[in-house]
Design a protein that fits this description.
Blueprint: E1 10-14, H1 18-29, E2 33-38, H2 43-46, E3 55-58, H3 60-68, H4 72-76, E4 80-82, E5 84-88, E6 94-98, E7 107-111, H5 112-125, E8 129-132, E9 134-140, E10 145-150, E11 155-160, E12 164-166, H6 173-181, E13 186-190, E14 193-200, E15 215-219, E16 224-229, E17 235-242, H7 261-271, H8 273-276, H9 282-288, E18 295-299, E19 303-304, E20 308-310, H10 313-316, H11 325-342, H12 346-378, H13 382-397, H14 405-410, H15 416-434, H16 445-455
Parallel strand pairs: 1-2, 1-12, 2-8, 5-15, 12-20
Antiparallel strand pairs: 3-7, 4-7, 5-6, 9-10, 10-11, 13-18, 14-17, 15-16, 16-17, 19-20
The chain binds flavin-adenine dinucleotide and ligand 8R5.
Length: about 475
């Protein structure tokens, strides 16, 4: 059970969630001996015990990483296409805002447990050994010994390691052990808003009750609901709302004030009436599902010499509003596997990985925070819709040069930091060009084109 220590290339991964399972596959296929310790049970064995359908939006970065492990086809076979945002206004009107130019530019809703199970199967096939119900408890970095607790027996083993990878999520035990051993600045900026998951079941005919091929948004200014489709023809609905009263005058809904499911129904009847009509289990879901926390985690270092390195949520948990947490974690895995392949020295590989990925993680963390305002407040604002229309026109006039913000993040693999920098320039152009305009009819195209050509270099997607 305990891996033997030898001079071969051996890696010990903590966490067999999304990143841990993908990284295990990538490294085992490259000839590394891989042991993974996962505190939960094997999701492939849980069967009917498993929880609710939780889905995630998969975009180009995540798909590309999955393809590196030959996992893309299996995952895509059970994915639901989302062409755009279906914006549900307060008056009940709906409008689809496409994410891309056509159906080649879409995102996909995938089932978290299915995805994890697929990746665990591939990791095992590649020769990685996954030890379920084994939790990291502590680390002696000097002796290179990990304390691993076998949860069923409640016994702690001392497990020697060459190097540890922390893929153990936002509450990372490896990160805690690193911070206790060495000076490390760990910042958690919690959002004042939390979330609660609810469900829209299939209709009486067994089909989807609303448009399946969209990410639904009910924007309401300071808060919002979203819904993502599942292959089971249900939707997972998420309400994002302040946790406590914000102190603003007048109406100020928040989770603390909606402790009682009956109050939740009244709130939905007022603000999300069309969604409520689709949610017969609102009260039960409300009572059963806890309020989830949201925050941004930033560290000043991700690695300890050649001894340990963090990736995914353990290194850079982010707010969910760009749907990029998993996509970014998968990109991390490909980057780390490439560095480990290229450099015999683990310390150099970890340092190069961190130097490549930390600026990009910080860029998507910021873009994710910004996208909350866009989703909850701006998507049904006529001025925003006008800017979005201009963005699409400029993309057609300057292909490869003016690429909409959402496209750079979701359909391309340019580094997130590049996407952020270019988006800031583009936003300034859009704001200036539409100021005082109610339509695109009287836009000064020559002036706008000159701005684009002067301020944006042509760009290429990653190979
Ligand atoms: P996780 O997937 O959290 O995996 C960590 C693993 O480590 C877990 O299996 C855990 O059991 C294990 N572990 C923890 N502690 C220990 C320990 N001490 N010892 C051993 N094992 C341990 N991202 C997107 O890109 N698109 C989306 O649409 C999206 N939607 C989301 C919806 C929800 C409800 C949530 C919560 C997140 C969403 N995300 C989304 C973010 C995404 O889930 C994460 O960014 C991603 O799972 C990070 O992968 P990870 O492997 O780093 O962490
Ligand atoms: N994560 C997502 C987007 C961007 C959609 C857009 C947003 C739920 C806890 Cl809030 C959110 C997006 O700009 O039109 N793509 O994918 C996923 C999102 O939330 C997920 C489901 C979520 C954490 C709860």
């Amino acid at each position: 059970m305990t891996p033997t220590r030898d001079d071969g290339r051996h890696i010990t991964i903590i966490g067999a969630g999304l990143a841990g399972a993908l990284l295990a596959t990538l490294l085992a296929r490259r000839g590394w001996r891989v042991d993974v310790y996962e505190k939960r049970g094997d999701p492939r064995r849980l069967g009917f015990e498993r929880g609710r359908s939780i889905n995630l939006a998969l975009a180009a970065r995540g798909r590309h990483a999955l393809a590196q492990a030959d996992a893309e086809d299996a995952v895509m076979a059970r994915a639901v296409m989302m062409r755009g945002r279906m914006v549900h206004a307060a008056d009940g009107r709906q409008q689809l805002q496409r994410y891309g130019r056509d159906d080649s530019e879409v995102i996909w809703s995938v089932h978290r447990d299915d995805l994890n199970a697929t990746l665990l199967g591939l990791a095992g096939d590649a020769g990685a050994v996954v030890h379920f119900e084994h939790a990291l408890d502590g680390v002696d970095f000097d002796a290179r010994i990990a304390r691993i607790r076998r949860l069923r027996e409640d016994v702690v083993d001392e497990v020697p390691f060459q190097a540890l990878v922390g893929a153990d999520g936002a509450g990372s035990a490896l990160r805690q052990a690193m911070a206790a051993h060495t000076k490390m600045d760990v910042r958690a900026d919690m959002l004042d808003h939390g979330y609660r998951e609810l469900e829209i079941p299939p209709g009486a005919d067994g089909g989807f009750r609303i448009e399946p091929n969209a990410l639904h948004i009910w924007p309401r200014g300071h808060y919002m609901c979203i819904a993502l489709p599942n292959v089971e023809k249900t939707f997972t609905v998420t309400l994002f709302l302040p946790n406590q009263p914000t102190g603003m005058a007048g109406d100020d809904p928040n989770f603390a004030a909606l402790a009682d499911p009956a109050d939740a129904r009244a709130f939905f009847a007022r603000d999300f009436a069309d969604a409520l009509a689709l949610m017969p289990t609102l009260e039960a879901d409300w009572a059963a599902n806890p309020v989830g926390l949201l925050g941004t985690l930033t560290l000043d270092r991700w690695h300890l010499d050649g001894c340990a390195v963090l990736l995914g949520d353990a290194a850079h948990a982010m707010v969910p509003f760009h749907g990029q947490g998993m996509n970014c974690a998968f990109e991390d895995c490909v980057a780390l596997a490439r560095r480990l392949d290229g450099d015999a020295d683990l310390a150099a590989a970890f340092a190069a990985f961190e130097a490549e990925r930390r600026p990009n993680a910080e860029a998507i963390q910021r873009m994710a925070l910004d996208n909350y305002i866009e989703m909850r407040d701006r998507v049904d604002d006529p001025h925003f819709v006008l800017q979005r229309a201009l963005e699409q026109r400029l993309e057609a006039r300057h292909p490869g040069r003016f690429v909409p913000h959402y496209s750079m993040v979701s359909f391309m693999r340019v580094p997130y930091a590049v996407a952020l920098a270019r988006s800031e320039v583009q936003r300034a152009i859009l704001v200036a060009a539409t100021a005082g305009h109610g339509s695109l009819d009287d836009i000064d195209w020559a002036a706008v084109d000159a701005q684009v050509l002067a301020r944006l270099e042509p760009m290429e997607d990653a190979a």
